[in-house]
Design goal:
Length: 155
């Protein structure tokens, strides 16, 4: 079944903010194999001009995992069979570094759905803001739904 194009433009705000914790950042840095002391040591981060430990740029993928059950992927009306989905690509536009202690809100918006051969490509934009509403990052995620494009009719 094809993805419902009427969902383009629909926004899904996360139900609660996400507080960035020191252990979250350290664990993420360990998982990606990055030993950068800015991701682990408060004094090193402060010496580099940051208020606290800095999160790696790709850390914000944790918001996708944390709130994935609330977004478009979990909306049954969208018509997406997640068993047929593969990750296409991911872009991060950071407006400022993420630090331990940040309280982040996020909203995922279905930006585009299009046919790509027999597949469908869906682009999701996630806007991340801090507790004061200032922009922190924009994440662009493209997923591919395998074999779900509407059959083409012969003219």
């Amino acid at each position: 079944m094809p993805i419902d194009r009427a969902f383009v433009g629909r926004a899904y705000p996360a139900s609660t903010p996400y507080e960035v914790g020191r252990e979250h950042v350290r664990s993420f840095a360990d998982a990606i194999g990055d030993p950068n002391p800015l991701y682990r040591d408060r004094e090193a981060a402060q010496a580099a001009g940051h208020p606290d430990v800095v999160a790696p740029p790709t850390f914000l993928t944790v918001l996708t995992n944390r709130f994935g059950g609330e977004g478009p992927i979990a909306d049954p009306g969208l018509g997406l069979d997640y068993a047929l989905v593969v990750h296409g690509e991911q872009h991060f536009a950071l407006h400022r570094p993420v630090h331990v202690g940040d309280v982040l809100s996020s909203t995922v918006t279905v930006a585009d759905v299009k046919d790509v051969g027999r597949n469908e490509s869906m682009t999701l934009l996630t806007e991340v803001t801090d507790a004061g509403g200032a922009p922190v990052a924009t994440l662009t995620t493209t997923i591919v739904s395998s074999g779900t494009a509407a059959p083409k009719t012969e003219a």
